[in-house]
Amino acid sequence: MISIRNVLVLGAGKVGGTVADMLADYHRIPVTLADRDPPRRALDDPLVRRTVLDVEDTAALAAALAGHQLLINALPFQQAGRVAAAARALGVHYLDLTEDVAATRAIRGLADGAETVLMPQCGLAPGVIGMLGAHLAGRFDDLHDLHLRVGALSRHATNGLRYNFTWSIDGLINEYCHPCAAIVQGQPVSAQPLEGYETLVLDGDTYEAFNTSGGLGTLCETLAGRVRNLDYKTLRYPGHRDAMALLLRDLRLGERRDLLRQVLEHAVPHSREDVVIVFASASGLRAGRLEQETRMARIQGGRLRGVDRTAIELATAAGVVGVFELLRTGRLPARGFVGQEQAALEDFLATRVGSCYAALGEPGSGAAPASPLRGAAFAHTWPPQPRRRARQQPQP
């Protein structure tokens, strides 16, 4: 058990705000939500206190960390190293949502001799997808192939890119432009982004998938020597990959990422009408027989503390809030670097927010959704419940 009485969340954007509200609603724990920009409106919230903080001000960051036992970093990945170093120096546990490989490497370098936890990559991918991959790997005597696929998609894609932004523009550019870790025929490899193209049908819908960076986190290291082929790919609607290849390669905007960001921000709309798809396929030998096992979850948006949240906001926040609970209750190591796959999937699904990913559990397990607190009334409508159509009565 780790005593955590106060949590500092850095970054009051859509995801950071959802993390703070989810902590408050499901754990009734005081949260400080800090951002460089002042809040647009004053809010009287007994559990979430908002404050202004510039993390590049070393003294101000240290002062903000004081009095908190855990820091959740929801800032852009460029700030991860600085913030993690400050947390380690002051003995504050550190979690973040980064998908950036270099940032994770820097954080790992801080872990030697640390008396607190340094656990980056606590979102969806990397994050929950790593827990799922490790869980499926452990279900085979001889694991041949493990394929992990995640898509954060707008529900309605009508432009030439077949895509609207549902999360960070910088995060998307980062994962489309950096090498991608994988294992091929038992050997670790560095694959090129946008390559490894495939199409697949999930629940009757057609998607394309291709390599993107960072989604596996540390899973390649964990499964080295235990799997023949391991890869992570992003799901998109057909046509998106070719359009992005034109921008990044043919027009060479991958070499001018500031300009690429301007083009995308100017031309591609943001959408809050989204869906998150999580899919995993594993195959190998069980008791001498070749078998395959798949898991899939489709996550929708909903309301949390009276505010509409997108699917990617809820899915990402649930990842790190579930890890918070596992850390607090002693089901994760209490110090040093911790990889996502060190969290057992079944433990994560049993947390108060695990119902977000309930479909990834054992088929037929029938696990009941968790409530925020025993005996507490739901203050929101998330996770969304299936709607039942009212039966039409015949007219006399």
Q: List how many beta strands DSSP finds.
A: 17
Order of helices and strands: EHEEHEHEHEHEHEEEEHEHHEEEEHEH
Specify the overall morphology: globular
Query: How many H/I helices?
Result: 11
Low-confidence stretches: 366-380, 384-396
- Main beta sheet, described? 7 strands, parallel
Instruction: Give the CATH class of the largest domain.
Output: Alpha Beta
Structural class: alpha/beta
Helix content: 25-40%
Q: For the terminal residues, how far apart are their CA atoms?
A: 65 Å
Spatial strand sequence of the major β-sheet: 3-2-1-4-5-6-17
Which fold does the CATH topology of the largest domain refer to? Dihydrodipicolinate Reductase, domain 2
Which helices and strands appear, and what pairs or packs with what?
Layout lengths: L6 E4 L3 H14 L3 E5 L12 E5 L5 H8 L4 E4 L6 H10 L3 E4 L4 H9 L7 E3 L8 H10 L4 E13 L14 H9 L2 E5 L2 E5 L6 E5 L2 E7 L7 H4 L4 E10 L3 H11 L6 H11 L6 E13 L2 E11 L2 E3 L2 E3 L1 H18 L7 E2 L7 H5 L47
Parallel strand pairs: 1-2, 1-4, 2-3, 4-5, 5-6, 6-17, 7-12
Antiparallel strand pairs: 7-13, 8-9, 10-11, 11-12, 13-14, 15-16
Keywords: Oxidoreductase
Pfam family, one: Sacchrp_dh_NADP
InterPro entries: AASS (IPR051168), NAD(P)-bd_dom_sf (IPR036291), Sacchrp_dh-like_C (IPR032095), Sacchrp_dh_NADP-bd (IPR005097)
